[in-house]
Amino acid sequence: MKYVIFAIITFLLGPVASMAQRPPSLSSPEVHADNRITFKYFSKKAQKVMVSGEFLTAPQAMIRDTSSIWSVTVGPVKPDIYPYAFTVDSVQLADPSNTQIFTNERFKRSIVEIPGKTPLVHSLQNVPHGKISYRYYQSKTLGTTRQMLVYTPPGFKPNGTKKYPVLYLIHGGSDTEETWTKVGRANFIADNLISQGKAIEMIIVMPYGNVRPAPMADFTKDVVSDIIPFVESNYPVLTDSKHRAIAGFSVGGGQTLNIGLTNTDKFAYICSYAPYTATEEFQKNFSNYAPDANKINSQLKLFTISVGTDDFLYESVKKNIAMFEDKKIRVKSYIVLGGHTWMNCKQYLATTLQEIFKN
Amino acid sequence: MKYVIFAIITFLLGPVASMAQRPPSLSSPEVHADNRITFKYFSKKAQKVMVSGEFLTAPQAMIRDTSSIWSVTVGPVKPDIYPYAFTVDSVQLADPSNTQIFTNERFKRSIVEIPGKTPLVHSLQNVPHGKISYRYYQSKTLGTTRQMLVYTPPGFKPNGTKKYPVLYLIHGGSDTEETWTKVGRANFIADNLISQGKAIEMIIVMPYGNVRPAPMADFTKDVVSDIIPFVESNYPVLTDSKHRAIAGFSVGGGQTLNIGLTNTDKFAYICSYAPYTATEEFQKNFSNYAPDANKINSQLKLFTISVGTDDFLYESVKKNIAMFEDKKIRVKSYIVLGGHTWMNCKQYLATTLQEIFKN
């Protein structure tokens, strides 16, 4: 009862009372033991509230109760982490009660995790945890200070004798440098695979791949001339190509091909996830591609391209794979079920982390 | 032209085409050299779009153009960092085009920075940058793994001989462990003050202060029994009370008083910003408060309470200050202009950082 009174006082006097109309505190989403999910939204004025998400085949209507709380319970849903959003009348928005945000430049969505009975590779488990650091570097290429995220593994010693291999990991089209951790859970995937002995200890660098209005090709320069030197002067890392990998999703998957295959002396591992390649830079690099395949095949320890059969880029990616095969470049293709989603993308990363730096 | 075509293709084939109805890429907010700000929002169906923000006395209507882009230019606005939101018909939401989010459990707002001509203390400046690390710790008190953010200063050596003082810094009511960096820019404020020699090098620990449904008092236990031991076993820090400070805003300002004044053997610096004290825990600690003032005054090197004259808690905070004075506890009050805002809160922090660990 005291708690209820406190909650009411908090509601009335809440710290942003100056912006008023503060909604009541709701618990949304609530994930139930049977893998169903309840979503809630408060609105006195809305005519229609829907929830859409990559676990639903169609948006579901939410029902208003007498206290203007709209809700719906869906599922059971297959254990995974999914983006979702509410549509209130004509407006799509992130769930106001959920702090887990899909970091993106063009929309705001929320994230829900259905843990399931057996911990998934991307779940927070009771294992030693690495650390994500938010770092700033000076990009001479782009003339600005930019942010990158750096994962260091459990037990990392910045000044010890052990030196680490580095994976450079690039987000999708309108994502940001935070999307690989906030949505892709790259840190938990690495923690879990390292603790199981399935991946070796590595540093994962997650830069911000959007350089607009500069030409996209400037990101290749930024990686090679600014990001790699920053990492190599600030972290104890191995600096030969066999200890450097590059991977990325969607637009970042296209950037991975551009950066990696024009720098096979620098990256022995290139892993492209559902690459988006309808870009000037890809056109320039690969429309008249005449590689020394023997040389490249001897430089690369691993070159993979992953895609799902429901991905809207599936046909395009198959053409990319065929093109590389036609040029006699050794490429391993991973064709799986699923679409152009972060659910798939997390699996691509989990597969990759178990393969790189091992030969 | 090629860029325009690429932009159109990206829009048509965008990575989340599966969720369709993707809006065009907008640049919002745009901050102009004369400190005016242009906001944009895309909607074909909205009847009315408004922008509200802590730089406006009233919400401003946005005007729709023939391509369904709603916009308005406001200001000039006094240089600072402000939260703002759009209201589309009845729905308040964060700006979909802006990745700078006000991290909060109960609403989604966006952040806009008006840099001004002279760099402000919270701005990204060309100085050496510290690092923010996202860490996980096991809370025995709360029985879960929780996240905290840890700022380490420029030049920080984790295994060097130098040992650092630590500030524990707590967010407001429905904020999260990210709000002090994402909105409060604690890291840039520290970087700038350290580089100017105005603050000494320190570690800043930003925990997550919300422990509901556990009683709020459990956060005091969590800080003392779980967070401090985690920090002291993972960072090279000084562990006497003269090298430990606690500060917090709003609900976190109340927690600061509860945690600090019941542990004056552990914290020699207590800085409370616009404290919200209508809580059971505060009531329990201070309604029959009978302190040994001489002892406490000799333990504390600095005890400050800050508030703005337009703060909705102003009267309440004045009573808190009077209560401590009445009990002969030496308290320094900072009464400034302004309301219960993060603009004020950043100033409280900037003042505090220049005072702690100096005597």
TrEMBL record, chains A, B:
The keyword Signal applies. It comes from the Bacteria. GO terms for molecular function: acyltransferase activity, transferring groups other than amino-acyl groups. Pfam families: Esterase. Keywords: Signal. Residues 1-20 form the signal peptide. This is Esterase. The lineage of its organism: Bacteria, Pseudomonadati, Bacteroidota, Cytophagia, Cytophagales.
